[in-house]
């Protein structure tokens, strides 16, 4: 189940990276670079911290190929002006799904490594957010995670990870626990964007 969710996470994050690069009017190399670090950066940090070898995208070699294909397709389609309008309007959607999917992958693999629940939740947040942080930096932007007065982001991941961990504590099926966490994060993030929810201070 975790590998399926990881595949969906890579697709979602790569799409977000491609759209982010398209907004910056990058060429194919730029699109691929942004999509690559966005889709694979968080999981790479997770694997390094958990001492998992080889890295997940080396073990699953089709992930970089998938990112490459998405970047190439986006480059060939960039002549369509409707593509850019769609990218500007719906950029938050693949970001929200990538956040939810990768957060569960991070928390799940951390649990398999026998970490404590709190550490597992932190690994979920790291895996879910770090790729986007690198992608924003490559695009010469302040990462959305660190912008003042930004809508809830890491908080959504943290809450969703704890939904997963609590349900897992009661030994519910893994498919139920993982997808409950994912849907919690995605819904929470979309609500935060729609109603501009922020942390106080």
Characteristics of this structure?
mainly alpha; 9 helices; globular
Task: Provide a descriptive summary of the structure in words.
This protein has helices at 2-23, 28-50, 56-59, 62-76, 81-90, 92-112, 117-138, 154-169, 174-195. It has nine helices and no strands. The model has no long low-confidence stretch (mean pLDDT 93). It has one domain (2-195). The chain starts with a helix and ends in a 6-residue tail after the last helix. It is an all-alpha fold and 201 residues long. Helix 1 (2-23) packs parallel to helix 4 (62-76).
* Intertermini distance: 39 Å
**Overall residue-averaged pLDDT value:** 93
Structural class category: mainly alpha
Number of domains: 1
Q: Could you list the spans in which at least 5 consecutive residues all have pLDDT below 50?
A: none
Helix content: over 70%
Q: What's the SSE pattern?
A: HHHHHHHHH
Q: Main beta sheet: strand number and arrangement? A: none
* Overall body shape: globular
Q: How many strand elements?
A: 0
Number of helices: 9
Strand content: under 5%
Using only CA atoms, what is the Rg? Answer: 16 Å
Brief summary of the model shown:
This protein has 201 residues and is an all-alpha fold. It contains nine helices and no strands. It has one domain.
How is the secondary structure organized here?
Elements: H1 2-23, H2 28-50, H3 56-59, H4 62-76, H5 81-90, H6 92-112, H7 117-138, H8 154-169, H9 174-195
Helix pairs in contact: 1-2, 1-4, 1-6, 2-4, 2-6, 2-7, 6-7, 6-8, 6-9, 7-8, 8-9
